[in-house]
Each structure stands twice: as C-alpha cells, then as structure tokens.
Amino acid sequence: MEDIIRLLPDAVANQIAAGEVVQRPASVVKELLENAIDAGASAIQLIVKDAGKTLIQVVDNGRGMSFNDARLCFERHATSKLRNAGDLFRISTKGFRGEALASIAAIAHVELKTKPAADEMGTLVLIEGAEIKEHAPVTAPNGTSIAVKNLFFNVPARRNFLKSDKVELTHVEEELYRVALIHHDITFQYYNNGSLILMLPATNMRQRIVNIFGQHLNDKLFPVELNHELMRISGFIAKPENARKQKSEQFMFVNRRFVRHSLLNYAVEKAYAELIPQGSHPP
Ligand code: ADP
Ligand code: MG
Cα of 168 to ligand 1 centre, how many Å? Predict the structure, then answer.
C-alpha cells in the first residue's frame, strides 16, 4: 500500500504539546517565573491583565539572551539547561525540557526583549502562533521581558474553557505564591490591571510568609528545623489553634520546587492528629 505516515509540521506539534504545558494563564505564569529564576534574577515583575487572558508579562534582571538564543529559545527541545542524559541526574534548574516557550509561542502572541549585561544592544523577537514576525536588535535594559498576549487566540476551544477572571486570577496568584514563598531572597512585584497588588522585597522566609499572607500570621508561625544525614527540613508551621478548614495555606517544597504528595501531607496530619479537630488542617 501507499505510505501514509507523515511527520507533523513543527507548528502543529508545538500546538499539541502546548495542550499539555499550558492549561490556563497560571501555567504560563509558572513557566515564565521559573525561567526568570533559572536566569539568576534577583528582581522579578509579574504583570497581568484580565487575569492573564489579555496579558501575562514577566520582567527579570537575569542574565538575558544573545541575539541567536533569543530566537532559538522558541524552538521545541531548545534548552541551555541540559546537554546530555547524564545531566538529568544533576538538575539544579527548574526547567530543562526546553518546551515551555515553544508551547507558549504556539498559542499566543509573544514579545521577547532581552539583553545580557555585557552586550550593548538587546534583541526583540515577536512571534505569533509559532511564526516569527520580527527578530531585530533593540535598546533594552539588562535582563529579559517576555509578554504573552491573547492566550489561546488560535485555540478557541481552550479559550472558551477558561473560567471567570476571578477564578483564573486565583490560580495565577497561587502560582506566584508557590514560587515567591520558597524564593524569598528574590524581590517580586505583582501588578494586575495596572495597579501594584503585591510588593515583596527580598527577605527571610518568615517575613516573606507574613508579607504574602498578612501580619496576623507572624506570631502564629512556629519554626521547624531538622538536620538528618539523608535530608534537611526547614520551614514554618502554625500552632494547632490556627488550623483551618481549607488546606490552601499548606505549601511543601522539595529542592525548592512546590510539591503535593499524599505521604508528606499524611506525615503532617499525623503529627497534629491529637492536637486539632478532625477535618482541619494546620497552615
Ligand atoms: P527550559 O526552561 O526547559 O530550558 P524554556 O522553553 O522554558 O525551556 O526556555 C528555553 C531556554 O530559553 C532556556 O533554557 C533559557 O536558556 C532561555 N530562557 C528562557 N527564559 C529566559 C529568561 N527569562 N532569561 C534568560 N534566558 C531565558
Ligand atoms: Mg523553562
């Protein structure tokens, strides 16, 4: 019979991959914040409009990208973080699959401006639905700014599936908290629809928790510290009387990555079992 198998064009493959990487605006926020951290930024701005449906922009003061890298970063499996399979066992960055920017560019209008401190000129890349519209030198501050506009403009089914702005914004903020809590040594500024919502100066973890969740938590936080030959655990837990009905103030991280794991949750619940009413959870 005739040959019928064909390789998918990159743009289609990226759009399919995007379905897995980008569920909603918050997924873009996570990927862009992680890239900024991997780039060594000490200050990061998150700017959203209409809960990220119209605009998600992350501006960092990290190492920036060269003229060629600024274009290459949108290719699938293009990464500076992994060179061989062995590297998989010593990953120290948040990303390594080189898929996020390719996926995001396949389903949005993306404007990248970037400049390494050592270079005189920066680079502008405009890309829409995986199609490069512009790639040119530009004056830019040190670091990287990526603006993602009109998310899912070419995937109406996904766009229609988004929840109300209120719900999507809750997801966006949750993603910001997850990153900002564990990177308290980085300054974050968060803007929504033109107003500054949250200003988080670089500080220690206790102060970062308070800056995010409110001063009322300050005297309720109890430090935890464990040094074991296999692991080190540190953080803050709340006193039993501050247990809440929701688990929304529980954040656990492994190697500075947010995780949810039933075994870890179980360990916490068990430690508090005799101290708090059933069905309540310690922050
Ligand atoms: P990954 O993070 O898995 O490598 P991404 O698609 O998120 O894949 O990014 C691709 C590459 O683009 C990164 O490996 C990095 O070299 C570069 N990059 C992305 N964002 C930034 C940034 N904010 N600053 C500097 N380089 C970046
Ligand atoms: Mg990444």
Answer: 24
